[in-house]
Design a protein that fits this description.
The protein is globular and about 60 Å long. By secondary structure, the protein is of the alpha+beta class. Keywords: Amino-acid biosynthesis, Glycosyltransferase, Histidine biosynthesis, Transferase.
Length: 281
Amino acid sequence: MIFEHEIPKGSRLYFGKAAKAKRELEYKISTLLDSRGFEEIVTPNFSYSQHQAIANERKLIKFSDEKNEQVSLRADSTLDVVRIITKRLGRATDHKKWFYIQPIFSYPSTEDYQIGCEWICHDNIVDILNLTGDVLVALNINPILQLSNINIPKLVSKELDIDIQLFKNGEIAKLLSLDIQWLNELVKVKNIEDLENSIKLVPQSIKVELEKLLKTAKEVSYKNLVIAPLYHGSLKYYDDVYYRVIQDNYVLCKGGKYSSEGISSLGFALYTDSLLKILED
């Protein structure tokens, strides 16, 4: 039995002080992004291409349009923003820096608010990392920024002929059980010094991507930085150095470098609901 006052599990309700805190957070971050040259875009809630962004398609809320083409509720904003700017609005604007404030939806009835930005046709990952750091400083919080490179677990998997699912599932114990010295050292990496030491031990096939990660880490201005070379995230489109921001078991932000429509771009999404919980605490 469903009572009149009930709302679906996973949905969001803000009122009173909480609604005011959400509005003030969105205003503060959007003002900062605007000052850095980002313009706002609000994309449709419905999309034809969400399967290209989400690894687990069972998380998509799907239905059919009037022509029986499959439509999904927006579960991720990144690729839709890039596609709309480059394909639909290409003749109307040549602006490359965009931000959005909008929810995403996942099966069966979960909604999460995001504040995100996309820097189209730009590939210096340090710029978006330092922008993320500036946002965290502006909010007066100091969570961990975890820096990774999606190509490293892929290369290690190929080098050792092991299942990539070990990395996707974070099965560190199984990796350590292989008892391979250079792999053990990679598992232990947390900072720049650890990474420098591990690069001396790894096979040549992996060094280039580790060195790319090291170079990026050295140029990041945000201080609470942790390096996790073997981390494998869930979003399909990140194809190089990427990152997440975490505190107290909350993921506050995900971002990185990706390619869409043959264009290399950068972006991040801040998770509004988690940020509000951290700021309230």
